């Protein structure tokens, strides 16, 4: 029987950005076991630990803010759990905060509906002004069409309703920094590379990081750790 | 962006990218400036197979445990990533430091199966290392190899500077220290090889010349240095190193669990089994040593499964107590304990009951042959009754799926023996139906492979059946095993043929491997990747008839591996082959008097069983 539930916020560094969702689940489970944190398991022939992650992250993207809920069969102070788990994690994964939930929280996937991605783009100097201009125009457009490929073929979708914010910083040696806030979850998904399709020529993506996630309703922002 | 980051930025394009990133928990990354000798441990197959291999894990920790050495790992990149490396101009690298293999002093390959040979060439080439030994000098790493294939390494003699024959644990450090000293003193390659050849277990193929008769058989094998390579052996297996910092991969691997070797060697004496000959004698670890190690491994890995491995774990003296203790200790912590193989008896089914509360999976028995006569021939003293008793016990204990393993083309096999396989499968099926009259879940899987005679076994002289003969036998089984319950599957006979050619081949095959590889061979053990045409063309161009290596060989013919001493005497192998023909069983020296295979005397070791006073 689970006696405590924790919500963890962690980073997925660039060295582990290729872990799939499944790899991540196994890696966390084993780290929790190494840390001697007694997980609650489901019943049945194939008991699995009661843990659930927030919105999936595409393979190859690192993150400054991921979320995980775990249930345990022992009541451990959250700081102790965090410290023990950090000692057991492989390099690249780090728990930033742990909170013992006050009440049974709504699942992460049901509450998180915003994600911020930071992209670093690279293009030849002559094209930089054009890139800047197109991107800066996104927020004032009514429609932004991109092509999505799925098993039924190609589909053109309007991503404008899912784009909540887009900011650019000036080009420097590192490239162009773009910060995109998009919808995530059951009401739609903005993919970080969607905006690349809005450009009339290919640019090189040097890096994509998921920077933040939260719940937003009627303009009010609540962080997942404040929802449990 | 570092050079490697440029490669990494393309990893999202490839299948299973964590094969190539390193950084797994418990890996060891040592400072390159603080050591004098750098070793790359290479496995010529994909990551998930290579990391499943215990031997390299042992060596990895031993070498990294040395204050002046480091070891890193490298596995064969799949074709998609080979493309990335080639297009980025980045060499095949070791996972820890991301440095190309050329930066290492030693590259050591584990040769577990013959069909990985061409992949060794692919890996060297991707690393920018000349594939042929004669084309490498002091500026290249020393390329060494070990594993069961080193007992007949002749087909790879052109590519490998030095083979380590036998168990590496007792000799690897001395070998590497000699290389370290030699590098410091600036020995050239010839001098280095001379010194290394003096060490136990070391075989330098370049120190031997082979002469051939007009009919292609070997006229003589001459040692230029005068050394005769003898297999290396672990004398104190109880205290021999076993991995403590068990690497926990990110992705799922083939054997995704902690594996702990509870004993080494098997003396049951199955006449077809190479492992049963080349890892003699039996050496058991103390239960206390095992339990202490298991506890530490489970704690430091977080793994949810552990396996008590060996060639025949059910034979371990105190297996029941050990298993009960392990289950008592780990099951409450949600860690499954398992044995890799079972004997065909109710005792083994009892053991399986101890560790498998979930009986939804299958239980595997390996009668190997269809009739009692045939099983006596191969020295597998299992009776039909044994199989029936064990199967019934399995069914009654709740298992509904059984797997039965058989071999085709064993010496003296007749149609009666094939019919025997059918009969056995039918009887097990009937038994299953009696216990489970109604269920649809009842499943008997009959798995057949082609017998491949191996070097240093009693069957090393025997002929291997052809692809056509195998297919005929497979057809026979297919026609006679039609049933809703029985599922028949088999190993691709063409792959068995290739395996057989190299298993008993000589060094003239090096040219064939080279040519086939140039034509695109690689990952030959992967049925989808295997390119028969490349091999056939290569044989034709070199002018070698592959069937030459599959034929029966007379006792007075010099075998390509005759200059390599496994410790088991040739007389014993010959005697065993003769006894086989007459269907006489040879007892296991585990609980019977010594049958004088020669290993203990020749290598200066002895069997070690826990608590019997023989240790
Ligand atoms: S020499 Fe005798 S005791 Fe030693 S392994 Fe061989 S048969 Fe067994």
Describe the structure.
The complex is a heterodimer of chains A (228) and B (615). With 228 residues, chain A is of the alpha+beta class. Chain A folds into 2 domains: 4-109, Alpha-Beta Plaits, CATH 3.30.70.580; 112-227, Alpha-Beta Plaits. Chain A has 4 helices and 11 strands. In chain A, strands 1, 2, 3, 4, 5, 8, 9, 10 and 11 form a 9-stranded mixed β-sheet that branches. A two-stranded antiparallel ribbon of chain A has the order 6-7. Chain A starts with a strand and ends in a 6-residue tail after the last strand. Chain B folds into 2 domains: 3-223, no CATH class; 257-508 and 544-602, pyruvate-formate lyase- activating enzyme (Alpha-Beta Horseshoe), CATH 3.80.30.20. The N and C termini of chain B lie far apart (58 Å). Helix content of chain B is 34%, strand content 14%. Chain B is α/β, with parallel strands linked by helices. The longest helix of chain B has 21 residues, at 415-435. Chain B contains 20 helices and 17 strands. A 6-stranded mixed β-sheet of chain B has the order 2-1-3-4-5-6. In chain B, helix 5 (117-126) crosses helix 17 (509-518). The A-B interface holds A 15-16, 18-20, 22-23, 26-27, 29-34, 36, 39, 41, 45-47, 59-60, 88-92, 206 and B 1, 9, 11-12, 17-18, 21, 23-25, 248, 250-252, 299-304, 333-334, 357-358, 360. The structure holds iron/sulfur cluster (SF4).
């Amino acid at each position: 029987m689970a006696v405590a539930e924790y919500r963890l916020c962690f980073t997925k560094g660039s060295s582990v950005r290729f872990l799939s969702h499944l790899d991540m689940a196994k890696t966390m489970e084993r780290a929790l076991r190494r840390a001697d944190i007694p997980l609650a398991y489901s019943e049945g022939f194939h008991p699995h630990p009661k843990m659930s992650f927030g919105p999936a992250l595409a393979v190859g993207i690192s993150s400054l803010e991921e979320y995980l809920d775990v249930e345990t069969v022992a009541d451990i102070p959250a700081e102790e759990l965090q410290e023990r788990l950090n000692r057991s994690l492989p390099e690249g994964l780090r728990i930033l905060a742990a909170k013992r939930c006050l009440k049974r929280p709504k699942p992460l996937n049901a509450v998180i509906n915003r994600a911020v991605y930071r992209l670093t783009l690279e293009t030849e100097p002559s094209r930089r002004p054009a890139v800047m201009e197109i991107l800066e125009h996104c927020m004032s457009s009514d429609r932004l069409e991109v092509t999505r490929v799925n098993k039924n073929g190609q589909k053109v979708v309007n991503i404008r309703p899912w784009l909540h914010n887009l900011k650019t910083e000036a080009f420097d040696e590192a490239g162009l920094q773009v910060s995109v806030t998009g919808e995530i979850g059951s009401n739609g998904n903005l993919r970080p590379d969607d905006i690349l399709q809005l450009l009339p020529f290919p640019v090189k993506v040097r890096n994509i990081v998921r920077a933040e996630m939260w719940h937003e309703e009627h303009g009010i922002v609540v962080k997942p750790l404040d929802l449990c | 962006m570092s050079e490697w980051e440029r490669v990494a930025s393309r990893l999202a394009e490839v299948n299973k990218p964590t094969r190539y990133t390193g950084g797994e928990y418990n890996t060891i990354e040592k400072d390159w400036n603080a050591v004098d000798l750098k070793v790359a441990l290479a496995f010529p197959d994909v990551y998930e197979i290579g990391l499943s291999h215990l031997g390299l894990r042992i060596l990895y920790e031993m070498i990294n445990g040395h204050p002046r050495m480091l070891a890193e790992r490298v596995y064969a990149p799949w074709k998609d990533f080979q493309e990335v490396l080639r297009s980025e101009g980045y060499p095949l690298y070791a996972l820890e430091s991301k440095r190309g293999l050329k930066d290492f002093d030693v590259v050591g390959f584990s040769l577990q199966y013959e069909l990985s040979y061409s992949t060794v060439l692919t890996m060297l080439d991707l690393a920018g290392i000349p594939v042929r030994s004669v084309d490498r000098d002091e500026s290249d790493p020393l390329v060494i190899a070990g594993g069961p294939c080193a007992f007949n390494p002749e087909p790879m003699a052109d590519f490998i500077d030095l083979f380590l024959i036998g168990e590496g644990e007792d000799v690897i450090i001395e070998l590497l220290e000699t290389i370290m000293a030699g590098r410091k003193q600036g020995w050239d390659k010839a001098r280095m090889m001379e010194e290394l050849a003096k060490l136990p277990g070391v075989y330098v193929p370049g120190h031997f010349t082979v002469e051939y008769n007009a009919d292609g058989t070997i006229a003589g094998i001459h040692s230029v240095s005068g050394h005769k390579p003898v297999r290396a052996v672990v004398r104190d297996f109880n205290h021999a190193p076993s991995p403590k910092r068990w690497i926990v991969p990110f992705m799922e691997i083939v054997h995704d669990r902690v594996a702990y070797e509870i004993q080494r060697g098997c003396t049951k004496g199955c006449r077809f089994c190479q492992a049963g000959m080349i890892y003699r004698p039996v050496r058991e670890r103390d239960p206390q040593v095992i339990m202490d190690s298991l506890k530490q491994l489970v704690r430091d890995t977080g793994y949810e499964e552990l396996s008590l491995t060996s060639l025949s774990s059910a034979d371990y003296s105190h297996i029941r107590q050990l298993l009960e203790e392990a289950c008592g200790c780990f099951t409450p912590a949600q860690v499954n304990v398992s044995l890799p193989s079972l004997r065909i008896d109710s005792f083994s089914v009892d053991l399986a009951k101890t560790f498998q509360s979930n009986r939804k999976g299958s239980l595997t028995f390996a009668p190997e042959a269809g009739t009692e006569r045939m099983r006596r021939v191969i020295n597998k003293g299992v009776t039909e009754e044994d199989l029936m008793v064990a199967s019934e016990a399995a069914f009654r204990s709740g298992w509904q799926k059984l797997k039965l393993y058989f071999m085709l083309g064993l010496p003296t096999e007749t149609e009666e023996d094939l019919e025997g396989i059918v009969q056995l499968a039918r009887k097990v099926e009937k038994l299953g139906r009696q216990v489970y009259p109604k269920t649809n879940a009842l499943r008997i899987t009959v798995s057949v492979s082609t017998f491949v005679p191996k070097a240093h076994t009693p069957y090393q002289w025997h002929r291997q059946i052809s692809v056509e003969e195998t297919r005929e036998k497979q057809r026979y089984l297919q026609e006679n095993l039609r049933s809703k319950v029985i599922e028949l599957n088999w190993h691709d006979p063409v792959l068995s043929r290739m395996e057989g050619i190299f298993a008993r081949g000589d060094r003239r095959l090096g040219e064939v491997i080279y040519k086939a590889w140039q034509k695109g061979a690689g990952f030959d053990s992967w049925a989808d990747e295997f390119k028969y045409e490349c091999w056939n063309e290569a044989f034709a161009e070199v002018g070698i008839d592959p069937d030459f290596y599959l034929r029966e060989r007379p006792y007075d013919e010099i075998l390509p591996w005759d200059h390599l001493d496994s410790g088991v005497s040739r007389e014993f192998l010959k005697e065993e082959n003769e006894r086989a023909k007459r269907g006489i069983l040879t007892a296991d020296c585990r609980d019977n008097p010594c049958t004088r295979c020669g290993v203990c005397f020749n290598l200066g070791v002895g069997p070690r069983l826990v608590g019997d006073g023989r240790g």
